[in-house]
Amino acid sequence: MTTQTGSSYYQRGLELAEAGKYQEGLNCLCEHLRGAPHDAQALNDAGAILHCLGRTNDAIGYLTKARGLLGDSGEVVWNLVEAYLAGGMATEAAGLLDDMERLGILNVDVLNRTATMLLDQGKKGQAVEVLLRSYRLWPEQEVLRPMLDVIRSNRPKVAFFRNGEGDDGALADVCEFVRQRFQTEFHPGGDAEGVAERMRHSDIAWFDGGGEMAVKGSRLGGHGRIIVSLRRSDVRDRWAREVRWENVDILVEIGSSAVEEMLLAQVPDIRSRTRLVVIPNGINLDRYILRRRERGKHLACLGCLGMEANPAFLLQCMQKLHYIDPGYRLFFSGRFESPALEQYAQYMVRTLDLTAVVSFEPYPGDLDRWLSDKHFIVASGIGESQVEALLAGMACGLKPVIHNFPGADKLFPPRYLFNIAEQFCEQVLRGDYEPEQYRRFVEGHYRIDEQLKRINGVLLQLETEIELHRATAPACERTVPPGGGTPRTDSFPAAASRNTMKL
Q1: Domain boundary among 227, 256, 282
Q2: What is the number of domains present in the chain?
Q3: How far is 88 from 117, CA to CA, in rounded Å?
Q4: pTM for this one?
């Protein structure tokens, strides 16, 4: 078959399809594809015609092949989404929404039809994600707010317990993320006494930071699921020995598997007693502005000033830097963990003759603004407690200078690490200063999206187990979530009466 003949088959096929003669048009396109099997546009058009003929599975096959050859075609992606929806493949359609948004072809109709189908199939978690996207892109849809409330009321109740104080930006973002998707109560602070009562009214108890609350929660009976999330810096004292880890459904290691390495010293059989999941650190880049700053002499150190933050070592480093160049200033921001450490730090500042160049301030309400006139983000800690503060500084374009604590080389490039005070000075005084590069590092390795995606995965896994338990439990043990069964979806806005393919 010559190219001219093939082209005529193609054009004739399109003309027949546009006239409503779909089978005849398909025959012509198939004849064309026999000689040009990799013609992406013809594959797309054949898929569209098959969709019109009601042959959805065949249409998906052609369109999938077309997308493999022409992945960035909005027309192909659109048609494939329509074919998936026609075939009841809502999960597959939802998987293409990112591409639709990136290509600028996403609309409220597609989103709400996808959400409706997901809900009809009992996939509440995926439906919530689609509806939240719809509400984010088109916030004028006030009807979605009560619909989301209804769906959340049919999902597990989550009680989030935070060990000790802490209200950093990353944790606030995690809390908001969970709140948008589940019925959620947050209990900050270390009150272990109220754990039992709060767990009785929850399906999932999440203990962030471990401690005595995690010990108490793991020793309580009941059918609720338990998550314990830990950073390496949380594994101190001896509380981990007292946890009944066989009652903990998932141990979340935040940052890296270094959490497990620390735990093994106290709980050698931890791997056989619970499931372990690693979730990376994450930072919400929307909170921080990259300022095109010039190299300057202001150093920032953020976080709780405890023994783990090791502020005394940083003062020694600062003393050497001050001797070389007295123009540098060091700004601590955070609360001292103990009066004794505060007294010692203040004494060292005076003794080392640093009073004019070192200051201590409360933790700022607006971290981005506080960092706006700083040039370096520094940390001398012995663990990971300052990692989120370091990432925030780097997101603002500050040069990181980080003490080489155990596991630091798994989190940061070696060029940002120092071992001794002399190396600290070398890092600060070295000529390179590239704010865009520091921001790009965070964008490439620590976007909060990946952290939140994995957190959602953990909660979805437990939700599935809870629903399976409810479905298989004896009738006398079954519980019905507030609001009854699956929420109605017939009131979603812009529900299409027919699908539209692009030919």
Answers
A1: 282
A2: 3
A3: 7
A4: 0.79
